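Entry type: protein chain
Record version: 2
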Amino acid sequence: DKVLAELIEPYEVRAAKLREFLEDVKPSLRYDIVPLADPYGPSVTDPDLQCLVVSEETRRGGEAVNKKRLENGLPELALYEILLMKDPNHGQNEEEKISSSSLRQRLLGTLLRPPRQDPALPSRPYVIGLTGGTGSGKTSIAKLLGHLGAFCIDADKLGHAVYVPGGPAYERVMATFGAEVVNEDGTINRKALGAKVFGNQERLKSLTDIVWPEIARMVKEQIREADAQG
């Protein structure tokens, strides 16, 4: 549930930065940086560990570690609590401590890399693709761009439109997946269709091979319409 998880640096980069920081603090110590495949890592199985460094917000996690260690027949760890540095410039909706989540939040609206220059692409209309997981804000950003004068194309709506009776994918979907995916009123039963394809890679590919090219064609039609409107 991290904020903007897509912008978290890869594990290898974070581990390298951590090692550089620790060795700068005290080069004489040996550091083992271990990837955590579960919430506990080696802390609940390593008999040689004696101390766990926690912050105020992670103390409960440290207590959970000790509970697991006792269940595993291991002695409790000493919990050494450190105070986290406050961020004097934190915003109203940001964490008080210095936080990578806050830093990622501040990246919103900044250009991470310049637009790809492709001589085969016309300079107008300028097409921006919004993508992301459920709840990531695609609809909100599309509305904001729409208020600024952008022509918005909702691929989800087009995805529904291809299935309607008379739609470009209707006959092929019905022929490929059978009458059992059709409701009494003639519309495609998307729930029944989903049950047929999800979990079956071959059927899912058959569906996407029918539907995606039609959605792409409809998108291109709408782009041409936007261009005609200026």
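Comment: Strands lie at 51-55, 78-82.
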